[in-house]
Amino acid sequence: MNLMAHATRTGDDSGGGGRVADALPPDHTQAILEVTKEVGAVLKGSGCPFALVGSVAAYAYGIPVRLQHDADFALRAEDSETVVKLLRQRGIRIVDPPEDWLVKARSGGEQIDLIFSLAGRAVTRELLDRAWTLPVDSVHLPVIDPTDLMICRLAALSEHHCDYGALLPVARGLRERVDWDRVREETREHPMAVAFLYLLGLLGVLPRTEPTREEADRRD
To answer: What residues contact residue 119 under an 8 Å CB cut-off, 6+ apart?
Structure first.
């Protein structure tokens, strides 16, 4: 979402000395929740399987995150045409992005991402069937399974995008609901994920584990 599009007018409004100063809104939480409920209602009515992902999913699990950017929904690529048609009928503007793994939309000034691939992995019916149904600001919606949420977030880490600070409260808040053995197994080829899991052990969020022989050999 281009937050710089939100501007605050300061100075003289007479037209002579006024100026528009770009400002980051302090909190978009409620606006994004309203858009989430709007799109969620359309998706529920479509009959297509879907699940909330990203920051709104963390919010649904009770993680104290500030919603600042967009509402993310995972769905299968084969359902995208149906969903896009229904969103257009609802008056939601569809934006064609250069990427081929998502569709972007806008409603009420907020951005919506309809995602077909999470960290390079196609969204499948099996992944969506594991979703939990949770209240999201009083509306019940499917939310990506906690283990799948952590796997997707960790697999997306790279040398160019590696914000452990944003991930730490999510890991703390979800730790009793996550299958950490599956997380380790499915992210073992991602160095930034392996390092984060090791950090969780050092911080006492998870029990510390010794590296496997295979991991030790790779480090050598």
So the answer is: 151, 152, 153, 155, 156
